Amino acid sequence: LELQVPDQPVVALHGNDVTLNCSFSQAGSFNLSDVSVFWHLTDTKRSVHGFWMERDQVIEQAEGYTNRTSLFPAELIMGNASLLLQRAVVADEGSYTCFVRVQEYNSAALLLLVAAPYSKPEVTLEPESNLRPGDELALTCVAYGGYPKANVIWQDGSGRNLTDNITTSVVANEQGLFTMTSVLTVVLEPNSSFNCRLINPLLSEERSIFVTVTGW
């Protein structure tokens, strides 16, 4: 029995459905009653979904997957043992093993990653007013609801990186999504421009905000 699963990690958008592809080829003909499929978490062996005796078997399904998993039963006879996982969340990340038995058996594992886009960043200043050239200024850039951790880059108006003076922190909410806060400390010049950029490594997606601060 030959199994095929993706070599590269499968990326699911948070809150969206994702299909974990697993296909098998079996020499000779077989009936649906011959097919058993088990999906489990590779590390803990906890059950995610089971199918045998021509029906879903979810009695031992791990907590958190209830009413969120299904196979494609009409396509099992054609060798499709893929798992549909609904409403993906950060906690779903990890390695999943697809186990198929048709007379003979085999298994293969794939990696699921979850991604969520960040909100457009917002920038606040401290102090907010009475700014003069030569004053020390703290700019705080905040973006919400993203995953995984973004790469935060601060640049000046001419595109030079200002990474030496940055403090970045990450806080997770109940869903595991991140709020990223990055503070840049600079000495103000008469007209200073700053660009806060957040790059989500999984989505190759960038969010940025450009601010100009005028000192009197």
UniProtKB/TrEMBL annotation:
It is found in: Membrane. InterPro entries: CD80_C2-set, Ig-like_dom, Ig-like_dom_sf, Ig-like_fold, Ig_sub, Ig_V-set, IgSF_BTN/MOG. Coiled coil: none annotated. It comes from Xenoophorus captivus. Keywords: Disulfide bond, Immunoglobulin domain, Membrane, Transmembrane, Transmembrane helix. Residues 1-109, 121-214 form the Ig-like domain. This is Ig-like domain-containing protein. It comes from the Eukaryota. It is a single-pass membrane protein.
